Amino acid sequence: SRYLKATFQIEFLGATVPPEVNPRLPKIRDLLLTLLSSKSFDDVRTPEGKQQLREEIIARVNQVLERDAVKAVYFTEFIVQ
Question: What is the rounded radius of gyration, in angstroms, for the C-alpha atoms of the chain?
């Protein structure tokens, strides 16, 4: 059994956060927590695994927002114990 703590920043296309983010924040958080909890240590231990996770985060947030709004995801903390 392992523990994952990840903190990340999402960069959006354009200068500001899209207005539809705040009303959909609970859904975004739920989808991201579900995604993170589905990952095994082997899924995220390599740089390639972390890149795949970034791409999945971008895809899920864009899915909720119903458009391509996310430019990038930056991990600011990533701990697996």
Answer: 13
Pairing of strands 4-12, 70-80: antiparallel
- 17's tokens: 């956060």
Note the pTM of the prediction, 2 decimals: 0.94
Residues (pLDDT < 50) of the chain are none
Which residues does 71 contact at the CB level (< 8 Å), separation at least 6? 11, 12, 13
Q: How far apart are CA 40 and CA 13, in angstroms?
A: 30
**CA distances, 67 to each of 8, 10, 21, 29, 80 (Å):** 21, 15, 11, 17, 32
